[in-house]
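Q: I'm building a small set of examples for a reading group on sequence design. Run inverse folding on the following structure and report the sequence directly after it, with nothing in between.
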């Protein structure tokens, strides 16, 4: 992408975020975005099919950035305490952008996007973990932790995070403890430990 295209995309994104902070996604028109950018409507269509594609693209970008900030996303299954602490810090660092992108009708999409991207990452590196049991555990841990944290984040967030960590550890002991996943986790922990030395 050349500099002019990058500048145009940046103008589109900035205009979109400004509009999105003021109104629901469904109320934003290409016309008003083009005026705010300032670009021609046709220029917008060179980059995106519609407002929803733009929004989904930005949602994916911010989730990808968050996941790339984690030491290792597979820690959700191998070291849930550390995973939750790192994820919490990254979510807080991106809170203003997340609150714009995932508001109104998109509010439920953050946990879904986290789940989708985490599973893609984990299963691309650990194909043998891709089974029903691990999929269910991941869905439960991600959505349960997200909903719980969002509901109680303004009341003693450290205590809430500690409770989430304890529940995650309990789930992992109970359900992942009966599979060959346990030996894979032990190997994975040893590998991560070696990398950090």
């Amino acid at each position: 992408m050349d500099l002019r295209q990058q500048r145009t995309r940046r103008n589109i994104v900035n205009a979109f975020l400004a509009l999105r902070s003021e109104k629901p996604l469904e109320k934003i028109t290409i016309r008003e975005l083009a005026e705010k950018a300032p670009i021609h409507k046709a220029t917008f269509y060179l980059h995106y099919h519609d407002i929803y594609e733009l929004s989904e693209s930005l949602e994916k970008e911010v989730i990808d950035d968050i996941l790339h900030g984690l030491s290792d996303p597979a820690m959700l299954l191998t070291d849930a305490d550390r995973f939750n602490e790192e994820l919490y810090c990254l979510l807080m660092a991106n809170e203003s952008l997340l609150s714009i992108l995932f508001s109104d009708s998109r509010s439920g999409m953050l946990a879904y996007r986290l789940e989708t991207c985490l599973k893609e990452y984990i299963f691309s590196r650990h194909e043998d973990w891709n089974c029903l049991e691990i999929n269910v555990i991941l869905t439960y841990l991600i959505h349960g932790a997200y909903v719980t944290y969002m509901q109680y984040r303004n009341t003693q967030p450290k205590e809430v995070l500690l409770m989430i960590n304890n529940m995650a550890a309990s789930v992992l002991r109970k359900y992942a403890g009966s599979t060959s996943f346990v030996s894979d986790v032990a190997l994975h922990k040893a590998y991560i430990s070696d990398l950090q030395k």
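DSSP finds eleven helices and no strands in the chain.
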